[in-house]
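Ticket #4471: structure output looks truncated?

Reporter: J.K.
Steps to reproduce: submitted the chain below (148 residues) through the standard prediction queue, then opened the result file.
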Amino acid sequence: MKLTQEQLKKIAEDPKAFLNRGYRSTERIAAKRERIESWRQLAESITVELKQTPGGSGPSKIVENSVCNIVDLQREIEDEIRELVDIQREIGLAINELVDDPTHKALLEMRYLNYLKWEEIAVRFDITFRWTMTLHKRALEKISAKAL
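Returned output as attached by the reporter:
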């Protein structure tokens, strides 16, 4: 699989934005999981007595709405995960195709595929935070130039 001309153009224009898309997607998934947990807690906090009631209101309706919201959010998360897989595939492909230097490649993978913080990357490389940022800047410059 090769990068498309459109992908190369996006990388050349703003490599950081192209590479950072996966992180944003994982944030959206995490936010939806938090909302599911909120709905779950609400549903579990209500004691429901099963009986035939006209109009269908009260605690059982709240539980029903909570369950429906949970199911909807789970479907959205499944869609987001499929999208994230595609994004990560594109990012990995871009890094593999456009980055020759193994240090730059490892740094970009740690940051944009493993979502490590800069401090964690610096520790893993046994270098200073400042040098990590310098390497990152150089890697972005090279990936942008090669995408042209």
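Triage note (M.O.): checked the attachment and the full token line is present. The first helix runs from residue 5 to 13.
Status: closed, working as intended.
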